[in-house]
Write a structure and sequence with these properties.
alpha/beta; Rossmann fold; transferase; 12% strand; methyltransferase; 155 residues; 38% helix; 4 strands; SAM-dependent_MTases_sf; four-stranded parallel sheet
């Protein structure tokens, strides 16, 4: 992921970023997330969501050791990508039921089938600014850092 041109081409304008201009928007003519929502940029296995899942795999064991999930809870991973974290949560906690919530083009690439138990999870597409699924526990990993405070409160 880090070697993909979407990351290193914008570095040529890093000085503009310091001055308040988004280097990515200048190089690609669109925002980062709009770029990755285009079908032509999702076709490859070398895409943003697969890359995020790979990076997240390093963090997931520590997260699982850091929190004890209550039995029989429903966990919703908001903007959970292809579900790498949620898969690990389900594997470590056999009584949980989970919801992977993201946009439809992302959900079709989910990895939750690897669990081998399709009754313990479901996919739900949507926009977290409109509504989120009902759950006992919400995971919000790597999603609020790029939104202004007033949007974070909505999420």
């Amino acid at each position: 992921m880090i070697t993909d041109e979407t990351f290193w081409l914008a570095l040529s304008l890093v000085a503009d970023s310091v001055r308040g201009h988004c280097a990515f928007n200048q190089v690609f003519g669109t925002s980062f997330f709009e770029y990755w929502s285009k079908p032509e940029n999702q076709a490859s296995d070398h895409d943003f969501h697969s890359g995020m899942s790979s990076l997240s795999a390093v963090e997931n064991p520590g997260l699982l050791r850091s929190y004890h999930f209550p039995e029989n809870a429903t966990v919703a991973d908001i903007a959970g990508g292809i579900g790498g974290l949620l898969l690990r949560v389900l594997q470590a906690n056999p009584s949980l039921h989970d919801i992977l919530f993201d946009q439809e083009p992302v959900l079709v690439k989910n990895c939750l089938g690897e669990l081998g138990d399709d009754l313990r999870w479901r996919l739900q597409s949507g926009n977290f600014f409109v509504s989120c699924p009902v759950a006992d526990i919400y995971l919000l990993k790597n999603i609020i850092h790029d939104w202004p405070d007033e949007k974070v409160v909505v999420i």
